[in-house]
Structures are given as structure tokens and as C-alpha cells.
Amino acid sequence: MSTISRAVEPVAHASAVCMGALRQALHMAALPGLAVLAILCMGNAYAADGNTSAEQKARLVIAPEFRHLDFVLAAAEGDLNGDGVPDRAMLLMGRKGEGPKEERLFVLTGRADGSYQVLSVSGEFCHPSKFYNLDIKNNALFVQAVYYADAARFSGFTLQFRYNAKTKDLEHIGEQQDDEDYSSNSSYRVSLNYLTNAAIHSRRVGKKYKEARGRITDAPGVLPLNGFVCEGYGMTSSSVYLDDSFKVHKKGGTPP
Questions:
Q1: How many helices (H) and strands (E) does the chain have?
Q2: Which of 63, 130, 207, 208 is the most buried (most CB within 10 A)?
């Protein structure tokens, strides 16, 4: 089997599985989930149908123990280590046999010849109920996990990772949690900086806006991407909290 065939085979298998599920939904008239299945199948078909050579080359360096991760949830390209060569971040999902779904964030460094080398692999990732967005800008990787996104509401958080030349790995340096209610034209945001332990809470309702600045009280510290897991994130507390009446509470954690 050629190297390109080995790279495409996992995605082609995922596409076949997805199309089987779509046919079953059609047979059983499972209309509520039909649109979602169709979108996922289209994504798989695109990947199996030749996608970009960059993705194929990236898959070639993924270790055999991760070959079951055959669906690309999100991907981004950009220079993370400052060498002028585009690197690649990929969020992959899959399962071994009848086991639970797994997610991993892979970061691959690009080489001048167009090939890749694995830089870092996360532990079990965030499993948002909606989707991910990946972006690389200013030598930093931003991973947005979206839990709610419809006409009435948005809720999710964004993790920021930055390359450390000394450790040869990316580090989790910051996080932003966002909640927006479009019907009431209101929003609440918490920005956390794990390099400085600074926390900024901001709330807006219509034209009214207020900010409260404090310190993270249970900071996990700056963590490497290699082995990083999402469990427990979004629960960090700080020395201030801004309630829905715009009152600032000090020295307390985030209310239950």
C-alpha cells in the first residue's frame, strides 16, 4: 500500500461509516439528526477525496496508536515556533472498537521540504457539544470550544497556547470564557492570564458595561500541551466576581 493510501484510508473508512449512518437515518426517517449527519458525511467525503496534500502529509507522521482518530474536527496552519515555516494544528476524533469517543489535539511542526514532525499531542480534549474553531495568529494557537450556538445564545471558551523554545512544546498561557444572550443583548466574559495570574470579569447589558479586575485564586499554572486535558477547565475562581446586577464581590470564588 502506498504512503498516500495509508494516509487517506482512515478518513475513507470514517466516510463509509458516516454514509451508512445517513442511510439508516433515511430508512428510519430520523429527520432531526439528518442534517447533522449529512454535514459530517460531506466533511468526511471531502477529506477522503483528496483534501490538501498538507493534511495527507500531516497524517503520515501520526503514531499508529492514534490511527483510530480518523475524523478531523478542526485544523489550522500558521507559524508557531517562529522559523518562518507553516506549522499545523489538528483536532482529531475517533474511537477504538466499541470504546468511547476520543479527542486529541495534535501540533505538527512544518519542515522546509513540506513534511511534518509531531511537536506535541494533548491528552483527552474538551468534547464540546457543538464544535471547535482553531486559529493560529501572532505565533499563538487559539482553540475555541463551543457549547451553545444558536439564534438566542452563545457559550464557549477559548484556550491560548504559545510555543516555548526552552521546553520545545506549546504551553497553555490563557483562557477566555464567553457567554452571550442575544435576546437580552447581554454578555459576560472572564479572561484569565496564567502567566500573570490576572483575572478580568466583564459584563454588558445593552449600553451598560462594567469590568472587575482581580487575581486567579486556584491557578493551575502554565501547563504544557503535551498530555494536556480539558477536564476541570471553566471552573477556575478568582478574587473578584461581577454579578448580574453589576455588583463586584471581592475575595470570593465564582458562585455556584
A1: 3, 14
A2: 130
How, if at all, do strands 248-250 and 240-242 pair? antiparallel
SS3 219: coil
**Rounded distance between C-alpha atoms, residue 134 and residue 89, angstroms:** 8
Type and span of the H or E element at 77: strand 71-78
What is the rounded CA–CA span in Å between residue 106 and residue 65? 13
To the question of pTM greater than 0.85 for the whole model, the response is no
Provide the 10 A C-beta neighbour count for residue 218. 10
Spatial separation of the C-alpha atoms in residues 243 and 115, rounded to whole Å:
50
Cell numbers representing residue 62 in the block: 501520526
Distance CA 138, CA 155 (A): 25
Q: How many CB atoms lie within 10 A of CB 4?
A: 14
Contact call for residues 235 and 253 (beta carbons, < 8 A): no
- Assign 221 to helix, strand or coil: coil
Q: Is 65 helix (H, G, I), strand (E, B) or coil?
A: helix
- Which residues, other chains included, contact 103 with Cβ-Cβ below 8 Å and sequence gap of 6+? 69, 73, 91, 92, 93, 124, 125, 126, 127
Alpha helices (H) in the chain, listed in sequence order: 3-28, 34-48, 53-60
Q: For residue range 171-208, list pLDDT tens digits in order.
A: 999 999 999 999 999 999 999 999 999 999 999 999 99
Angle at alpha carbon of residue 55, lines to 7 and 68, rounded to 5°: 50
CA distances from 125 to 92, 130, 152 (A): 10, 14, 27
Residue 184 cell numbers, joined: 437580552
